[in-house]
Design a protein that fits this description.
This protein has 8 helices and 13 strands. The protein has helices at about 10-15, 25-35, 80-95, 110-115, 150-160, 165, 200-210, 225-235; strands spanning about 5, 40-45, 50-60, 60-70, 100-105, 115-125, 140, 175-180, 185-190, 195-200, 220, 235-250, 260. It has an 8-stranded mixed beta sheet with strand order 1-2-3-4-5-12-6-11, sandwiched between helices. A 5-stranded antiparallel beta sheet has the order 7-8-9-10-13, with helices on both faces. It is of the alpha+beta class. α3 (about 80-95) crosses α4. About 25% of the residues lie in helices and about 30% in strands.
Length: about 270
């Protein structure tokens, strides 16, 4: 019998035992979820122990589920599927129409069984050769408060979601590409997980990529962004694997060709 309860700070020591091999440290992400009112991290308890976890991240009528992890001693018992279904029920009760995720190969069958469909593939890159400095355009500027509403507009156009509550506290660290009329065409947010880059033109996206990848050795882009993928291969990066973006419910009008760096495995 599985019981579902909210994760608390007191659970963090036990959650370290669930750390999957090859994943980044899960604890900072769990701490992030605990701090945000739009996140709902839950634990699945079996015989008094935490057997698995998962989190729902809610933006108005869209959401993501993330960090679906089952302890090694509890795998192949259907617990992962029960965690997913519990989170989806929570989202339906909150009038969420679309729930996205990025699946590992291990997790994909669980999501297919729950009713998820594949949207696209993400391509993972790692640096194989030293970076050769490239001049960055003078149109790349630091954030100013006057740009805030335009960044929200751009993000919604590209993501298809209203994510103001995710972005609001991180905008001050962002770097922007503005045209000669001081209009924002792209932004890079290094403080948001892997360093999100959204841009409405290739020029803006590539200039922000120049800035980011002069110091960052890994990248993840949608396979459909051929311009961004070609930039990486031309500048010393090699593809290493793929990941699958999936959706439950309504498709959203997002634009993968305008994503020049994802946020992370938990938010696309």
């Amino acid at each position: 019998m599985i019981q579902f309860e909210a994760i608390t700070y007191n659970d963090l020591p036990e959650l370290r035992n669930l750390q999957p091999e090859g994943w980044a440290d899960i604890i900072p992400d769990i701490e992030f979820y605990l701090k945000q009112p739009f996140c709902n991290p839950v634990k699945a308890i079996v015989d008094g122990r935490i057997a698995g976890i998962g989190t729902a991240i809610i933006f108005d009528h869209t959401a993501w589920i993330a960090h679906i992890i089952v302890g090694t001693a509890y795998r192949n018992k259907g617990i992962g599927g029960q965690v997913v279904n519990h989170l989806l029920e929570t989202l339906r009760n909150n009038s969420v129409e679309t729930c996205s995720l990025i699946a590992t190969e291990l997790g994909k069958p669980v999501y297919v069984k729950a009713g998820y469909n594949t949207v696209c593939q993400y391509l993972f890159f790692e640096r194989a050769e030293p970076w050769i400095d490239i001049p960055v355009s003078g149109n790349v500027v630091a954030f100013k408060e006057k740009y805030r509403s335009r960044i929200y507009e751009l993000d919604k156009n590209v993501s298809g979601e209203n994510r103001e509550k995710l972005l609001a506290g991180l905008l001050e660290s962002s770097v922007l590409y503005v045209d000669n009329n001081d209009y924002v065409l792209g932004y890079y947010m290094p403080a948001l997980k892997e360093g999100l880059i959204f841009a409405e033109t290739n020029e803006a996206g590539l200039e922000l990529m120049k800035l980011k990848y002069s110091t960052v050795d890994k990248a993840v882009l949608p396979l459909e962004n051929t311009v961004g993928c070609e930039f990486l291969t031309q500048h010393g990066f090699i593809p290493t694997k793929t990941g699958t973006r999936m959706v439950y419910g309504k498709n959203i009008d997002w634009k993968p060709k305008m994503m020049y760096s994802r946020i992370g495995g938990n938010l696309g």
